[in-house]
Fold:
Amino acid sequence: MEYHVEETTIEALTRMLIETPSPVSYYEEIHPLMERLAKKYGHTLTYDRKRTAYIRVEGEDTTKTVCVGAHLDTIGLMVRHINDNGTLALRNLGGINYNNIEGCSVQVHTRDGNTITGLLACTSHSTHVFDDARSAVREESNMMVILDELVHSSDEVRALGIEHGDIISIDPDYRFTKSGFIKSRFIDDKAAVAAVFAVLEDLQKTGRKPQYTTLFAFPLYEEIGHGGAYLPQEVSEYVALDIGLIGPDYCGSETKVSICAKDNYTPYDRALTTKLIHLAGDQKLDYSVDVFYHYGTDASAAIRAGNNVYAAAFGMGCFASHGMERCHIQSVVQTAKLLYAYLLSK
Structure:
């Protein structure tokens, strides 16, 4: 059986999701969007106490429940301290590389629902002024946010409603090229979420059901390691959709779906991973099988937390992960098709 997904749906939803900020733990903007998308494709969203969103789809066989996870959270920042001069000291949320976010526009999300824009800069911000502007190592201790407001003291910043612990999102700068490349921050993991909805769209059109009851999970804490730590007890399999890595030791590319055999923490279940490899081959997908370092998914988080599940992971090949990322739309299409094949398989 050949599985169809709409490329235009994937691109449009990837853009929409990426342009909706959702750094680790920040759900206030992304959840309303998810609720609208779920409703569009005939479903409702539910939540657990970690604010993980779920879509439940009944299967042909309701005696077994599998879970497919695609995390909503992105890397981002938190206000660690409001400095006396009105700048903001920062705390990392996830695997931030400060070298490739210097100069980015950001948004500070306050607890009363306001947004204040700013610029992310190094304290040695200009070659005209600082001897070490080129040589200074960009790290948490010498990075700051300068607000786009006329503020010069901590009291003036607090008058804007900003406080310690506020979330800072980085503008993604989304672009889609004529040749089919997506260039943006946060392809990890918004493109995988778009792949899920592309499959749900075709399930709605065709009237098909997954083979087994499927719980689609959209966690908010993957980037700090515990997004998949909690699973409903009924779940027997957890498949994480997450980026594939590209580099000298890997066979993955920006057009392939990458199947992860092992991450930094654990090998994935042999039988389930083998099943995914066979499905990819049967569907004649462009895929690779790789072992990843400096990398983990919500599937391995589920295992490490003690959940009694079979675990596996796959996803779109992504260049320059946790920076200004790039992948080809075909890698997301391949990911969606492998997901579709998995859902309908016994």
